[in-house]
Structures are given as C-alpha cells and as structure tokens.
User: Which sequence fits this backbone?
C-alpha cells in the first residue's frame, strides 16, 4: 500500500472555514500479491459562522505527493464545492394544554339575604362546558357582612367592601365570580434537542467543467453516494458549538392561539411568545396565583373574604407580558418574552410532530469524509516539479 498526500488549490470562501487532510491510497499487486481498489480519501472539518444563511468552499485537486517526496499529477483533476446551510437547533415539543391569558374576578353587589352561592340558584350563575354540562365550582362564592359587623362602630373589611353603616341592603354582601378572558395561549413542553443543517457537495471535472457527482449530508442523512463517479460522503460528527443553544427543558413555551382574530394572535411571534418556568404553572387548575388557575382554586381559596379582590389571580400571562413590555420601554431586558433567549420559530416535521427551531449563533464545526475511487482520477507517475500553489 502506497500512501500519497493530496495537494489542493483552495478558492474563495463565504461564511465557512475549511480544514482538510487528504490522502490517495494506492494498492500495488507487486506489494500485496492481490488485487485491490485505490481510493482518494478526503477528511474535511467545516467550521461555519452560524449567523450566516450558509457558507461554501471550493477546492481543486490536481496533484499528489508521495511520502518519499515524489510529485504525481492527477489524470483527471477535480474541483469540488462544499456548501453548508445555516445551523439550527431543533427542540422537540409536546402540546400540553391551553392556558387563559388573564382570568378575572367579577364582583356582583347583593344583600345578606339575596346573595346565593349554593348549587340551586347561585348569584354568579353556572359556567358550562362545550357539551352543555355544568363546570364544577364555577358558581363562585358570596362574602357577607354579619349582623354584628353591620351594627358595629368598627370598620370590618370584607373582600373590597367595608361592613358597617347599619346597611343590611345592597352592598351588605357581594358575589365573587371567576371568568376567563377571551384570549387563550397554547402551552408546550420542551423536550430533547438536536442540531440541524444540510451539506451539499458538488464535484466537477476541472478541465471540462462537467458535473460528475452530487452528494447531500445532514442530520437525517449520514451517508450518501454518487453513482456517476462512485463517490461516497460520510458525516462523521459535530464538534461542540462555540455558543451552545439554551437549555429550555425546565420551561413551557406559551403561544397565543385563540381567537384567531385577536391582536395578540396576529402580532409577530417575537412580540408575544413567552417562556415560563414549570413552577409558575398549574396543570390541574388547583393552585392560586399560577398560570392555569381554575374555578376550584378560586372558590376554595383560604380566607378569601378577608383578602383583596384578585388575590387568587396574580402572576397570570397578561401580567407577565405587560411587565416585560414595561421593562423594554425602560431599556431593560425582559424576563419572559422568548425573544430574549434567541430567535425561535415553530415547525412541523415529516411525521407531523412539532418542533421549536432556534437559530444558532457563534461557530459550529462538522467533520465529513469524502471517498472517490482511484480509477476515477488516476495518476501520472514521476512528474518532476516541486512548486505548488496554495
């Protein structure tokens, strides 16, 4: 086996740095006593600026150099163009459920005798699901002043109302009703992530400029062949990016979805998508002051009649959003808007599964190997010149 070093001419590059090591492996029947196939093996490390849309590099193969220093010319010089697309990270996501943007507390003034929070004829009325069934705990509750509080000279506070002034009529009791806002966000759990890009390799005969091979590699296509020239390209692996994608597994992605005509649904995603911690969300609706709070948590809040209205409905999506908008207006960094962590977009894979795509920054290197049968290039032996241009 004789190993020859490949000599290449390197041409202009845009958005891509190329590091290569190459060899031409030639088999000799006089050495091995058996027939074998020679091949050109080219190992390339593609380092791309992930902020660019894509990067490309061109190479021209015309000579090889043996380990003893002899120079050989290729019978069929080749030129090759290698192009790598923009690098992204894709996070698999799973739809969890919808979350209301801003649940509200509706207060209805009533009387000690007239306010009703039982199941028969509640002052708040009942809320019904899409099948016409009553939603449990959706009938709210009443906060009433006692007779002792009404006829007391001391002021007693009852959820936004002061008892006293000898009032037993309207205002001596209030009904407190849970109501949803018209805007709903869809929540997604963020799962595992992987790099995504594509590499296109185009091979020409240098003198005739004839296309002799085209290969494509990517995350789902680790090897490709070109029958025209018999070339084989392999994706060996990726080096760790200089600026890694953010870790999002502890967060939910919140995207405005309904109604489709709502201004928040039709704004650019950069302006409305939010990333919130799992700890800020309740999936069963049983916790106050969390995104996803429901009827039961509202109705069963401890000490509710001695608290301020809205005491169970804090830290909702609207509140977080408006807080971030105010921070931006002050020239400060928002906390929950997804754009703070990068440039994101939602996509659908070939199997219809959803993914969140993140545009990488910094640099990322991919190692590939290209093999071309030796009989497709050939060599002229003992070419006596030593000056190479690079």
Assistant:
């Amino acid at each position: 086996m004789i190993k020859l070093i490949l000599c290449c001419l390197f041409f202009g590059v845009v958005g891509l740095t190329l590091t290569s090591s190459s060899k031409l492996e030639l088999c000799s029947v006089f050495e091995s006593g058996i027939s074998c196939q020679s091949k050109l093996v080219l190992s390339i490390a593609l380092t791309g600026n992930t902020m660019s849309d894509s990067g490309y590099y061109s190479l021209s193969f015309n000579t090889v150099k043996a380990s003893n220093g002899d120079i050989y010319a290729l019978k069929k010089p080749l030129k090759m163009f290698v192009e790598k697309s923009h690098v992204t990270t894709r996070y698999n996501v799973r739809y969890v459920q919808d979350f209301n943007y801003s649940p509200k507390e509706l207060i209805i003034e009533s009387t000690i005798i007239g306010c009703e929070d039982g199941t028969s004829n509640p002052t708040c009325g009942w809320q019904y699901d899409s099948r016409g069934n009553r939603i449990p705990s959706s009938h709210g509750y009443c906060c009433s002043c006692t007779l002792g509080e009404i006829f007391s000279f001391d002021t007693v506070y009852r959820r936004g109302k002061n008892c006293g002034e000898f009032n037993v009529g309207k205002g001596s009791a209030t009904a407190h009703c849970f109501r949803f806002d018209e805007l709903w966000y869809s929540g997604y759990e963020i799962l595992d992530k992987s790099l995504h890009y594509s590499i296109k390799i185009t091979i020409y005969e240098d003198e005739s400029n004839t296309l002799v091979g085209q290969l494509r590699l990517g995350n789902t296509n680790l090897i490709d062949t070109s029958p025209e020239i018999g070339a084989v390209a392999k994706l060996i692996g990726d080096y760790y990016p200089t600026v890694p994608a953010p870790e999002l597994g502890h967060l939910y992605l919140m995207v405005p979805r309904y109604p489709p005509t709502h201004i928040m649904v039709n704004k650019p995603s950069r302006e409305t998508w939010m990333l919130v911690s799992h700890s800020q969300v309740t999936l069963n609706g049983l916790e106050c002051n969390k995104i996803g709070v429901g009827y039961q948590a509202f109705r069963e809040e401890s000490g509710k009649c001695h608290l301020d209205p809205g005491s169970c409905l804090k830290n909702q999506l609207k509140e977080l959003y408006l807080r971030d908008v105010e921070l931006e207006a002050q020239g400060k960094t928002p906390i929950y808007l997804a754009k703070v962590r990068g440039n994101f977009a939602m996509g659908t894979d070939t199997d219809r599964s959803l993914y969140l795509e993140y545009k990488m920054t910094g640099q990322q290197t991919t190692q590939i190997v290209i093999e071309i049968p030796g009989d497709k290039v050939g060599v002229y032996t003992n070419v006596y010149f030593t000056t190479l241009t690079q």
